[in-house]
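Meet my pick.
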Amino acid sequence: MRLTIFWRVILAQVSLIALILAVSLYTFSQLNRLTSLSTDALATDSTCIEEERRLLKIFLAQMRSAEKYLLLQDKVFYNYFTQGDTDFANALEKIALLLDTPQERELVEQIRDLQARYATGLTTAFAHNSAWNKEKTGFIDGITTGINDLIHLREEAIARKVTAARDQAAQAAGVVGWLTLGGLSAAVLLAYFHARSISRPLSKLAQELRRVGKGEFDRSLEIRAPREVGELAQAFNWMRERLAELDAMKTAFVAHVSHELRTPLTAMQEGTALLLEEIPGPLTVSQREILEVVRSHSERLFRTLSSVLDLSKMEAGMMEYVPVPTDLAPVIDRSVETMRLIAQKKGVQLEATCASPLPLLFLDEARIQQVLDNLLGNAMKFTPQGGVIKVSAAVKRNRTGQESWVEVRVSDTGAGIPAEEVERIFDRFYQSPYHRGQSQRGTGLGLAIARYIVEAHGGKIWAESQVGQGSTFVFTLPIHSPEQDKGRIAVVTPGQQRRRELRRGGVLRFLFHSGPQGLLFLILLSAGCTRVLSYPGRASLLAFPPQKVMEDGNYPAFVAENEERLRQCQGEMGCDTALFNLGFAYAYVQNPHRDLAKALQYFGELLKQYPQSPWALQGQAWIAFISENLALGESRRQLQADLRTREAMVRSLRAQLDRSRAIDIEMEKKERELLR
């Protein structure tokens, strides 16, 4: 079980308090011992020395009284002598109570014995042949020497105690110093490991948050941390998973919408091209100008949608390449020539330099051309009038010479890119706020697509830039053999590529050869039809029966007329026209009584009864159109329902993200408080 931050802090503080308490108790015990030694030296030894010196004074006074008594034989001096004997005995008794060594006690007994003999001998000092007068000098010397020895012994005891106290104080100071140093070291280590146990997982969490901010959701966070931080990491992993799901849904949604938009947009482009070629009829000047504007904008929208779809395929790893041995120099020259007219119009100098000869590279020529076009297009956008754009290519090798690659550099003299933006410009849909005020805006997909294409070819791409000094975009392409690259690039064979081109060009060729009826098919396609049955050949030009009702708008009369014709013909020729007219009337968008179910019924009868009729083909087209329209409506409703569901999920994720941010802010506040 992982301890929480609260209990970690409590244990750390308790450990520090216990350490301080242990040092304090040891210091108190040592001070108590020093106090005991000092008290013993002051209270016992000093008192003992004072009493011993007083004892010496008493004995000297007693000795003077004895000498005066022997000389003057005055009882007063004898009384002084006896009083001194009493004082000597009392003082000696006090000294005996203060002594604590056998040697001193033995000296006290000797002094007591000598003093007793000295005092007793004074009473016999006047007797004839008394030996006291001869022995008193020995008694006096013995007593004074004994008292002085007691004083010296006690002074030595005091000196020893002072030395012991000094040694004890030094030892205590050393121990306390080491304990303090050890305590501080332990406190620092404890604080370090405690802080590290919190800061390290938070640092990993911050690192993973930066990865998520860059759009990388593939790695979960696994850390050993306190319980609160662990719960935060679990919340982060949950948030990462939800963001990954949201990103996947967004990518799928954008790809789906782009795909659904590109189909009718293709029909609009083809129809505009046919109208501009005046296949249906001549155009006026104003009509041609309008169609040119439509074609220009539809082409730009088509390129944007194609870029979105290509990026979705690249992110999903489904983009297929057609790598063939290619000379890169002509590819660069084509890109430069494509931009040269724009450069001349803008007043920008465009230069291309290629090392000769460049080795053949095994790559998808069209995709690398797309990379160069994107880089040159960006350079042209942000290079002012009078600027220079340079494109160069050269072979590079590493120090050992075992690896080699072709390095392509696209440099400009534009405004440059801030250092903090250099890494982010290759993210999808990212546009630098540094250029946000300029009119040259794009979708933010070109550099992202270029990065995927270059990396798919085993190369690298990066930008070198300084604000105010222009930018240089560099990408590398490794020099590999075809066998090495086939395992790395999703290869499409030339046969597969040709079949795809035929499928893409089939609709245009059908419309071109089908005349006015093909134009009708074009109108159907522009309305959303994506499935048209094969055209059996060029039909004869026929008058279009519903033309009148399309002009006057009297659909009820037109329906009644054709229903009457249908009842009268009863399977004869002419019923096919009536069936077609009824189907068209109920399918036409301008009819206020439009009924697609009835239209399908009439067109179905037309195909069933008159499959060889010239109107059967258009009936097939209308059936395809109506079916596609119904399917598109159902898809639109499903898409709207999915969109509402995803919007709800987005709102939920935003709320959860806000809660996660609030938790992060609270954790930062707690961390700052703890660090204080």
Q: What stands out?
A: The mean pLDDT is 76. The beta strands are 324-326, 349-354, 361-363, 388-397, 404-412, 461-465, 471-478. The CA atoms of residues 274 and 512 lie 8 Å apart.
